[in-house]
Structures are given as C-alpha cells and as structure tokens.
Amino acid sequence: MKRYSATPSKPVEITAASPGRMASLLNQLALGEGFLPSRLPGVTLMRSTIHIPRSPITYEPGIVIFAQGRKIGHLGNQRFVYDANHYLVLTVPLPFECETIGTPNCPALGLFVGLSPTLVTELIMQMEQPPRSDDQPRAIEVTALDEGLSGAAIRLLECLRSADDARILGPQLVREITYRVLRGKLGANLRALAAPQSHFGQINRVLNRIHADYAQPYDMKTLAREAGMSVSTFHAHFKAVTASPPLQYVKAIRLHKARLLMVNDGVNAAQAAVSVGYESASQFSREFKRHFGDSPAVAAERLRANLVTLA
Q: How crowded is residue 256: how many other Cβ atoms within 10 Å of its Cβ?
C-alpha cells in the first residue's frame, strides 16, 4: 500500500496548469453570482464578477480553495489572502470581514468544502502519524496550495458535472480533500476538531450552540457553563479563538442571520429583528447600521442588486 508522507507537497506555481483547469471547471459549474449550491451537500461554488469591498461576512467551518481572483479576509489585526496559490481553512463558525477581487473578464472563482468533525476524527483514527503541533490551533488560517490538494479539488469539480458521479464519487473526494488538509501545514487546526475536551474544542461547542440557537437569550455565565469553564477563563479563550468578546460575537451572528433573512427570504427589518431574538426593532436597526454601515433596508437592497447570496 502506498503511504503518504506528512511533508507537504511542492506548492503550486502561478503558471501551473492545474489552476487553469480548476478555473475552467468552476466557470462551467458556477452559473450565477455569489455562493452557489452544487450537486453535493456541503460543497459550495463561489463566483463574483464584481469587486466587493471589505464588509462583514460569516463562514461555516470549511476549506476554501480559489482558482481565480482572490479574497482578503480580516479578523481583528490579522489579514488573510486566499487565491489560486493559497487556500483557507476555517475550523469554527466565524464572522469576519472580507473583500472579494473579481471582474467580468476575470471573475473570482472558488470552491468551499464543509468540514465534518466526524470525518476528521475518523481519518485521524486511521492515520499512523496523526498531525501534531505544539502551537495553539487557529480558527482561521491560510497556507500554500499543494499539488495533491489541487488535484483532488479538480477531480471533485469534474465529478460535480454528473449527478451520478457526484453522488457516488463526490463523498470520497471530499474525504480525500479533508485528508490532504490534515496531512498539510494546517492539519493541527483540523485535529483540534477531534479533541472536544480541549479548550479549543470547548469553545467550538459553544460556537455551534450559538449558531444553532442564535435567537435565544445568552449571558456570560450561561455560555461559560456550556463550555465547562469559569467566566474569566471562558472569556479569555473565546476571544483568543474568535478575536471577539462572547456577547459581541452573539450580536454579530444575529445581525448576519437577520441580513440573510432579508436578502434570501424577503422579510422586512421588523420581522428579521424578531426572528433573530431582538425585542426592540429600533435597537436592531441601530446595531445593524453600526455593524454593516447601512440601514437594514438599504443593505438588503444593495445585496439584491449585486445578486450576491451570502452563506
């Protein structure tokens, strides 16, 4: 049996043929603007023919591989550039700010593969040399795209052209992509998903709870108890992972969910406010404008005009 080395493969050069093939496939499959569903659950296609200035966004945990164009993410004082030569790994549901670089002649084209903690755990149990690191796992990070991961992404895109291929071959290719990320430079970040009793794992559990029940009332004591930590310890570890205080994070998630409701479901600001847990529509409007820079109605209309569906 062929064994894979834990050493990352040679980074892809800018002139390599594989990004061109990946971009061609994405150009065929991503027929629209923004975040587009594929034939495979958990796999999303990304396309933008316009420049989208830096603005708040939220991603679920996943691997983002770009074939053309680029995105620039900002979290606190950190900056992340992911493009045809660098992929991004996000291991917790996280709101941050992002700029998208694309044009009609050279659209930004990318692939999002959702991360499954169950799959990560299963792969680690099968590996003779699981990824280890003394560094603190990071919630969001980029690194150079290697040939193995690029090839797996291309094969996944090829299979998405056929319903049967997507259903039969797709899950195995998602498995391969996850495995190759585990074997790569950011593997230790994924390993943290399989360690629920670590501080990172405890914070991740709370983040998933917030995303599932964002309309529920939360306070610091409740969240700290959910994580199994004291309030001060929880606050410190939460901010280390998300670059945000816990209650500020809850507010950001509610505002993002409200914006999705307005853009995707056509509800008005008052309905969105109630749906995400606000008792005061005026407070919701103030906080929405402070976070996104526009009133709820203006922000929703601008997104509809750009045909950008956020995920």
A: 20
